[in-house]
Amino acid sequence: MPLADHRQEVFARIREALKVPAPHRHVGHTGEHPTAPNHDDGLPGSETFRAWLPLVGESLEEQITLFAQNSAALKTELHRVGSPAEAAEHLNQLAREVGWHRVATHPHPLALPLAEKVPLPRLVVGPGYAVTDMESCDAAITGCDFLVAQTGSLLISSASAGGRALSVLPPHHIVIASASQMVPDLGTALHQARLRYAREWPSFLSFITGPSRTGDIERILVLGAHGPKRLTVFLVP
Amino acid sequence: MKVSLFIPCFIDQFYPHVGISMVQVLERLGCEVDYPEGQTCCGQPAFNSGYWDEARAVAEHSLKTFKDCDVIVSASGSCGAMMRVFYPDLFKETVHHFDALKMAPKIHEFSEFLVNVLGVKDVGARFDGTVTFHDGCHGLRELGIKTEPRELLSHVKGLNLVEMNDTETCCGFGGTFSVKFPAISTAMGEVKCTNIVATKADYVVSNDSSCLMQIQGLLDRQGNKVKCLHLAEVLART
Amino acid sequence: MIAFAREFKRMAARYTADLQHRALIQRALRSYEVKRDEFKARYQSWGEARQAASEIKWEAINHLDRYLEEFITKLEARGTKVFVASTDAQARDYIVKVAQENKVKRIIKSKSMTAEEIELNHALEHAGCTVFESDLGEYIVQLRHEKPYHLVFPAMHLTREDISRLFEKELGSQPTNSPEELTMIARSVMRKNYIEADLGISGANFGIAETGMISITENEGNARLGTSLPKIHVAIMGIEKLLPRLEDLALFLPMLATAGAGQQITCYNTLYGGPRQPGEIDGPEQFHLVLLDNHRTEFLADAEQRDSLHCIRCGACLNVCPIFKNVGGHSYGTTYQGPIGSVITPHLRGLQNWKHLSFASSLCGACTEACPVGIDLHHHLLQNRRNATQGKATWWEKPIYAGFVFFMRRPWLYQLSGKLGKIFFPLHKLVNGTLLDPLRLWTKTRDFPDMAPQSFQEYWKEKKAKGPHAPR
Ligand code: SF4
Known about the structure:
The complex is a heterotrimer.
Chain A: H1 7-17, H2 46-49, H3 60-73, E1 76-80, H4 84-98, E2 103-105, H5 111-116, E3 122-124, H6 131-135, E4 139-142, E5 146-148, E6 153-157, E7 172-178, E8 182-183, H7 186-197, E9 204-208, E10 213-214, E11 222-223, E12 230-236
Parallel strand pairs in A: 1-12, 2-3, 2-4, 4-7, 5-8, 7-12
Antiparallel strand pairs in A: 5-6, 6-9, 10-11
Chain B: E1 2-6, H1 9-14, H2 16-28, E2 32-34, H3 44-48, H4 52-65, E3 72-74, H5 77-90, H6 97-103, E4 107-109, H7 110-117, E5 126-134, H8 137-142, H9 147-154, E6 157-161, H10 177-180, H11 182-198, E7 203-206, H12 209-222, E8 227-230, H13 231-236
Parallel strand pairs in B: 1-2, 1-3, 3-4, 5-6, 5-7, 7-8
Helix pairs in contact in B: 5-6, 7-9, 11-12
Chain C: H1 3-17, H2 19-40, H3 46-62, H4 64-77, E1 81-85, H5 88-101, E2 106-109, H6 113-117, H7 120-126, E3 130-133, H8 136-143, H9 160-171, H10 179-196, E4 199-202, E5 206-208, E6 213-218, H11 222-226, E7 232-238, E8 242-243, H12 249-261, E9 268-272, E10 286-292, H13 296-301, H14 316-320, H15 322-327, H16 338-349, H17 351-354, H18 356-359, H19 366-370, H20 377-391, H21 397-408, H22 411-424, H23 428-431, H24 440-443, H25 456-465
Parallel strand pairs in C: 1-10, 2-3, 2-4, 4-7, 5-8, 7-10
Antiparallel strand pairs in C: 5-6, 6-9
Bound molecules: iron/sulfur cluster.
Iron/sulfur cluster binds next to helix 14 of chain C.
């Protein structure tokens, strides 16, 4: 039996407090003039954010280029390949170079066939998989929902990337995506996710941008803090 | 144009040359300069220390002193900000609120007045030396003054302007803060002085004498030869 | 003087005298500034983005009842156990109870300033649990039994040598001065903890009212691991962290990263909408969300400072604060350091005890300028000063300001004192900088200017007497 909650008293205090309207205040003080929030016209819509955030080109090619630039800056290893077969070749080369023993993947129309081309023992996660099993894998091969050109991010969800842990536990995260999954910016990615999932949201969605990293020691960048040390993206047409 | 000077108390007593230089520059530019007598202090020390009733009492005196002026030019960005930005806050819900709001737009800081009101960038000054400019925080962030003093300096013959690192970082003066927390204030001033000295300039120029008092006080104590000058003192030289 | 104020002054004196420490912090923040400016420059309009962010938070805070209700309803509909806590003690008790009911022994925790605020670790340890801080910086300060130094960079006061020595002592690792190797040591220690922990605790950066999700921003992946593997996830967030719509994140995620850490976007920005849902293969079976008031409704009632609830805890105001850069994060003695801490701590812990932080500012306004949601920080410091003084004026200051008013309202008296000053001021030379010097607080470290032989007013009288056309 959980403790009684205190929502009634907190809500009562909130309502009481809000009886006094807040002054319409200016933003900061940088010589700008006071501006009142424009709430009669509603909040600034997310489409309008686009005009202020970093610029993204209109065409797919521009977006792929931007995605590639952002990826490079954040150490995502991006491979544009002509076909899933070509992706598999790269992957196998990677597996040999690093000396993988075992890979993990999940039932996914792009990820599973790719994983199946790697001649190594394979964990295909499903209900009741063992965490220690997954932890012993050298790489995880997953799908994703969208690629975000503006930031070089991937949007994944428990639905598209085999649950919560697969994309973060093994030391190397491999993502395969098709160019049609490219969206210009975060706003579009969120909007598209809503169209895809709003009837039943997955409990987990995540924007991933580069391999895990930290700057906690003297603000010096180190890759592979707790999550993957490497992130590789195969972009197929 | 008739211009009423506001010479804050500490400039009056410690740095009168700043006011005199302003008179010279303004007269050179053809302004009719007026100095409303009986002016004392804008009330900022009390205001910043939390004594708003006391600040209001002093500010009332200023409102009265400058009530008939159309254009008020302040020798200090900080005191100008007090009158322009903070008086309306201070007098909120009092009988003088309207007067404070009415006076606010008439207050100008010296450099901003020259450039934005008079439309002058070249005041015909000559000054031989390398200078670096320190942005006083109140002028910069309360009044939005950034380019004006630099435009004026760039037109002074013989003057070489070198920007220091972190010119927008506070010098650590902060009014009563400087004596309430002298260790912090001094540390901040030291950082500022390091940046000043690194420019190898002969002079530090600012539009706020209070910052300059802090900076000069530290430079002198450190035995540095760099001299502080108010912008008006540079512009007055011919 | 109140003990907290005395302690602050003592710490500030110690840190400002430590030139090496100041250099370390300033160097670290310099590299942040370079990166921040690089990414800010990519915005088509940072100013308008900031304005919009401020408006969105304004909307959320000024209709908090509505958004909070929507948020809770959506979360509960999908199996989240929401607990609204009025006080810090209630929040602690609830979380301890969850741990006890589920026989939790090991807890893996990711970074949460709200958990710091309610001193959660202490309560859990008292109840017999072991808490592992998984964020690298938090782990380091936990090993040192210290409080975080900075909202966002908890261990920025330590050098790699300090950390190497710490790991050597606490973990028995080999000394190294490579940040990479040090990070890998922490990684390998923590791996086992993720798998063995029964419960994961996290904070939340945003709550999305419309969809009933929390958003967690991190770089290391520790929060993701700690919310994926253990069978229970407890998140704690202040009631003010709400955003109305999902798409608002398109603005807030990049702005948080750029303003706070000088990044384009943080490595992981994750949304959690509940415990494991039907058909999902992993994730916790229980998801508890603790919503904390702990004086936040008092800010809300203070319309003048209500915007301090807009804070997204990005740390930008600390990063630009010249006070912070010189006194460091540990001087404050608060959960929240820097300008935002100075503004809100008086509300969280009592104005009279914590007013000194509002006075310990030159009011330069760098914080306000940096704040991505446009909180009027330095003006709030002024208001705190006013409120503190109105509540309880300092006994010796009151008469000084009464005298100040008396003089400044009487120009003749002001002028007279100027004249007298000129007579007596030269005597100051005799005591300059000594213990007898009334200006010692200034002159101990700085020279004081001389009074001018002729004041401006006297000059003006003379000038006028000579007539308008007299030579200058
Ligand atoms: S007050 Fe503003 S700048 Fe400071 S932490 Fe909060 S959001 Fe960031």
